[in-house]
């Protein structure tokens, strides 16, 4: 969903771990993509990341649809948080504590000890989309380790940390939180959730304990450091509380039964989180009029909030009111012109209108989205349709080939890449992109033959 939460499927390749939407084996999990949810997490993480001496713009925090409690770092630029863990956090400081701990693994260089350097794979994928699929073909074991959400031993080895690393990350995280003015007790309270789980069998433990070993000594040390470093830090920052409430309300309403959500929202509650939850829950129940009414209330309160307009646009799209949806998305884009997910949703709405003008606009909007989020297969899918409607079959074939390559389906990608090579001017940008995929497919085929 967009404006609500769109599901993107993780894949059995490095690029898939970087927010992809592809068909994949049952062992993988879905990644939930939503502009408002990701903005909320960015706002919560920004002071923590800055306190660690890192650039907030260089780290993505994504949510995985999984009811188990877990969070992990995939590479130096990607943190994943399970939806179950996010919903379990009772206040913003607890969620910021989880984020701070994962940021500490990045800042302390713990990723360098892993079996492969996933950042190299990320860079390769960004430079040439086909290369990410090639990485998986070169190392099946590495690909298995990157199967998002898989509980296989390979994945646990790839994502796990030593107790020494955990203790180091705890100390750093607590220091970052104090430096950012966030109560370090939030991280201790988050860790308390897992206290005692190591006494359980591995099958009953939450994945977080398997990848983040939690000993009594470690927890005792964390309590001591939090008490020492948290002196003078009291209360919750108003901005953090606001963004946490929005994220929690939206995700909860999307994940849970609509009737459960609606029963828990007071009839007189017109706060932003309540309106968001009411809109999402009613939309999930296919009750579009009350959903739109809640979205309109939010817009009336916050007319300059791009995510409020996006929420309304999503509901209209779900109700198949394509013209109204496109108009609402246009307002959201005007307010947040650089949000790639909103741009992608706007492009989809324009394609749904299916007029000469809307199709031409969709092509322009989708290319803008792709320039800001190069590994979004939904954009590639829509771009293929937009290029086809624009009478550019060569470019349609290129983006289709790239979409298959990101899914690790190099044989299918090669078919479309060769078609594109025959349709595009030799040496053009599109032709070179197609050649990258052909080369990757041929390399994979030769390797398999030798094996």
From TrEMBL:
- Write the Enzyme Commission number(s) for this entry: 3.4.24.-
Q: Which PANTHER family match?
A: METALLOENDOPEPTIDASE OMA1 (PTHR22726), METALLOENDOPEPTIDASE OMA1, MITOCHONDRIAL (PTHR22726:SF1)
Which GO terms of the molecular function aspect are on file? metallopeptidase activity
Q: Where is the Peptidase M48 domain?
A: 34-224
**InterPro entries of this UniProt entry?**
Mito/Outer_Membr_Metalloprot, Peptidase_M48, TPR-like_helical_dom_sf
Q: What is any Pfam family matched here? A: Peptidase_M48
The secretion signal range is 1-28
Keyword Translocase listed: no
Tell me what this protein is called.
M48 family metalloprotease
- Tell me its cofactors: Zn(2+)
Keyword line: Hydrolase, Metal-binding, Metalloprotease, Protease, Signal, Zinc
Q: Which domain of life is it from?
A: Bacteria
Task: Give a yes or no for keyword Magnesium in this entry.
Answer: no
């Amino acid at each position: 969903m967009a404006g609500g939460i769109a599901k993107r499927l993780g894949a059995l390749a490095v690029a898939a771990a970087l927010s992809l939407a592809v068909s994949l084996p049952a062992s993988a999990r879905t990644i939930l993509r939503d502009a408002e949810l990701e903005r909320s997490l960015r706002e919560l993480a920004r002071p923590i990341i800055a306190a660690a001496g890192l650039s907030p713009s260089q780290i993505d925090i994504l949510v995985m649809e999984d009811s188990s409690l877990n969070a992990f770092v995939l590479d130096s630029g990607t943190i994943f948080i399970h939806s179950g863990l996010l919903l379990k956090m009772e206040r913003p400081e607890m969620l910021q504590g989880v984020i701070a701990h994962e940021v500490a693994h990045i800042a302390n260089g713990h990723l360098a000890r892993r079996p492969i350097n996933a950042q190299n794979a990320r860079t390769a994928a960004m430079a040439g989309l086909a290369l990410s699929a090639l990485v998986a073909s070169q190392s099946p074991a590495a690909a298995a380790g990157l199967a998002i959400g898989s509980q296989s031993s390979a994945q646990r080895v790839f994502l796990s940390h030593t107790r020494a690393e955990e203790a180091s990350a705890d100390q750093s995280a607590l220091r970052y939180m104090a430096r950012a003015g966030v109560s370090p007790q939030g991280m201790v309270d988050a860790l308390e959730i897992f206290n005692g789980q190591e006494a359980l069998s591995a099958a009953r433990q939450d994945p977080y304990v398997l990848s983040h070993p939690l000993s009594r000594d470690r927890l005792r040390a964390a309590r001591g450091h939090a008490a020492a470093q948290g002196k003078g830090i009291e209360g919750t920052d108003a901005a953090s509380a606001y963004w946490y409430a929005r994220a929690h309300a939206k995700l909860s309403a999307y994940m849970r039964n609509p009737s459960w959500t609606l029963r828990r929202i007071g009839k007189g509650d017109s706060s932003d989180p309540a309106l968001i939850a009411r809109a999402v829950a009613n939309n999930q129940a296919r009750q579009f009029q009350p959903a739109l009414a809640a979205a309109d209330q939010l817009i009336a309160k916050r007319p300059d909030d791009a995510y409020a307009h996006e929420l309304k646009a999503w509901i209209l799209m779900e109700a198949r009111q394509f013209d109204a949806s496109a108009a609402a998305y246009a307002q959201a884009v005007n307010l947040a012109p650089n949000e790639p997910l909103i741009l992608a949703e706007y492009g989809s709405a324009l394609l749904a209108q299916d007029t000469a003008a809307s199709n031409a606009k969709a092509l322009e909007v989708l290319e803008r989205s792709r320039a800001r989020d190069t590994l979004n297969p939904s954009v590639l899918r829509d771009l293929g349709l937009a290029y086809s409607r624009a009478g550019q079959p060569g470019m349609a074939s290129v983006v289709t080939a790239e979409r298959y390559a990101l899914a690790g389906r190099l044989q299918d990608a090669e078919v479309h890449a060769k078609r594109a090579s025959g349709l595009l001017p030799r040496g053009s940008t599109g032709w070179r992109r197609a050649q990258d995929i052909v080369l990757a497919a041929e390399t994979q085929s030769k390797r398999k033959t030798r094996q």
